[in-house]
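Q: Two folds, back to back.
A: First:
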Amino acid sequence: MMSVVGAQPFIKPMQSPSVSPIQRRHTLPASEVRPLNTQDAISVFEIEREAFISVSGECPLHLDEVRHFLTLCPELSMGWFEEGRLVAFIIGSLWDQDRLTTEALTLHKPCGSTVHIHVLAVHRTFRQQGKGPILMWRYLQYLRCLPNVRRAMLMCEDFLIPFYRKSGFKVLGRCAITVANLTFTEMWYPISGHAYMRRNSEAIRFPQHPLTLPLPKTDEHVDV
């Protein structure tokens, strides 16, 4: 089974040189990135439903499936919170085959070396701000800290291919999975090397490995 000891991301509250007494009453960090848990499931599903139903008519994960993966492998999820409110998220699970099959939609394979990214979604209020690419970048950096992970895979509709290519994903081919009348393309990303992160209020920190790297510039035309 994959070991994730010492690889859990956490966030430090934003620090200000001078903080007024009124500001000190606020206990929620301005920005936080952390793994999701089952208590986040309803917020996750509400964002997902709004993001996908209006576009494709189908959700990648139903509410019970969201809870399922957040119970089995919460360490493969990541949520971006602004003042305690979920604004973007990713949910993944482990897979043990070269290509995705229908089973990959519902199963978590603990001995697998591929992370199947089921869904990336951004709250409608926070779209077109680059949050999708930034969260994906952080997630891929986090996966580099998991010793048994060798690649990430996802399936997407064709109009999203340019979006994921800008995050470094490559087209693998047509996906064997269909949902209703929807067809998909499989994409993959190699996981190797070490993770980098920034030591600021929006950085993921990995204990014992304090490295820094600026956030990537985003020039995306598609945001999810």
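A: Second:
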Amino acid sequence: MVGGVEEEFAAAKELLGCMGSNVVYCGAVGTGQAAKICNNMLLAISMIGTAEAMNLGIRLGLDPKLLAKILNMSSGRCWSSDTYNPVPGVMDGVPSANNYQGGFGTTLMAKDLGLAQDSATNTKSPIFLGSQAHQIYRMMCAKGYSKKDFSSVFQFLREEETF
């Protein structure tokens, strides 16, 4: 997600392709960052929703792998459930399978959600769920999750019984 002068983007596109497979020109300077914080806000919200649904299902007696399979063939399917599931033992090769090591850090997610919050304030845009996600990830950082992947929100919810 790149913002800037379109001719400069075109000249740098091949090099940018070394950083990721999807290189998208977004418009003027700042629009790439705008796209990134919007995407990461949605990602945080969907990860929290996935973690909450999985936690509830497990507490209701469902097998986590079975619940993930059902979610992923139903309308609740999303990247957080089918590609990056936050529940240990459901998927291999994701941070939840490695004590939430690696991946995209909780601190970075909290930072991006703070940028989204600031942008929403500046543009007078309501982001009710984005604001709640920001508070959850800030609380996680304060409670020792700062160095873990952002999908550790599942573990955080499992430990928090006061919500």
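Q: And?
A: The first helix runs from residue 6 to 16.
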